[in-house]
Amino acid sequence: MKGLMLFVVGLMLSSYTMAQTSLGKWVTIDDKTGKKKSIVELYKDGDKMFGKIVYLYPREGREPNAKCDKCTDDRKGEPLVGLQLVRNMEWNGGAWVNGTIVDPETGKVYDLKMWVEKDRPDELNVRGYIGPFFRTQTWLRVVD
């Protein structure tokens, strides 16, 4: 009985730790160029996780105070730095799910799943869905 209790507590702590490893700052990478795009900070508010852009890497042709002009929801016209990119993620014991992410370049909002592999704690898998179709990006942990 004691062994079972220790196993359950260990499993719960492991799940909690994996949830916590997703929090913090992550570098996003442009799919087309392979260059750094932005730094997104993931944080909890209550039991849910959110993420906002805290830094934009300079890019030719982008205005210094760029806004989310193509967004169609409450983020329309909001500055990209400070923009809440990730919303309402819920921890299911192995991944953050049931939230959304907006692509500020297109304004499209995608269903979202995020997770960290145990053997790659400095890489965050970010999978956006529209129906059965999805694309996965890898974000890199910011090391201070």
Can you put this structure into words, describing what you see?
This protein has 144 residues and is mainly β. It has a single domain, classed as Beta Barrel (Lipocalin), CATH 2.40.128. The chain has 1 helix and 8 strands, in the order αββββββββ. An 8-stranded antiparallel barrel has the order 1-2-3-4-5-6-7-8. It is globular. The termini are far apart. The N terminus is likely disordered.
| Helix/strand structural class | mainly beta
Low-confidence stretches: 3-18
Number of helices: 1
List the secondary-structure elements in sequence, H or E.
HEEEEEEEE
Strand order of the largest sheet: 1-2-3-4-5-6-7-8
* Average pLDDT score: 88
The CATH class is identified as Mainly Beta
Tell me the Rg in angstroms.
Answer: 17 Å
CATH structural architecture: Beta Barrel
% residues in beta strands: over 45%
CATH topological fold name: Lipocalin
The share of residues in helices is: 10-25%
User: How would a crystallographer describe the biggest sheet?
Assistant: 8 strands, antiparallel, barrel
Identify the overall geometry. globular
- Spatial separation of the terminal alpha carbons: 43 Å
Number of domains: 1
Please outline what is shown here:
The chain has one helix and eight strands; from the N terminus they run H-E-E-E-E-E-E-E-E.
